[in-house]
Amino acid sequence: MDSDKNVGGRDRLIRAVLAVVLTIVSLRWLRSGKRKRGLLAGIGALGLGFNASTGYCGLNDTLDIDTTADDDDVFAPSDAGDEPAADESTDVSVDFTSSDDTEASNVHANGTLTCAVCEDPIVPGERRGPNDEGAIVHESCE
User: Fold this and answer.
1) Closest Cα partner for 44 from 29, 31, 33?
2) In the prediction, which pLDDT does 61 show?
3) Is 0.70 surpassed by the pTM of this model?
């Protein structure tokens, strides 16, 4: 390989998280008396931590795998001289009403629900249900 870094981006982040998890598991096993398991988990945590911090993995090098990408490295320091990237976020409006909801005349735009028979508001927790016409009414108004 031309470069000494072959682990990058999300791969480094995942290895760092796994190193932290294995460290916690190792400490718990060592405290509970399971020394062999604790030692193996500790060695795994050290290996993954090394991969995440240096960006190099010997197994990746042997298998000729390179997960580095110029734009995908989450651990790379940002350049202060660069222009800020354009905001690529997109506003999405989601309508949670179904076709049945739009036909109901007792649901107001502000989200309040009124009884189709007596036109009193239906408060959360109050018993209600559809009448024969499909409109939401108080249980006592059915």
Assistant:
1) 29
2) 86
3) no
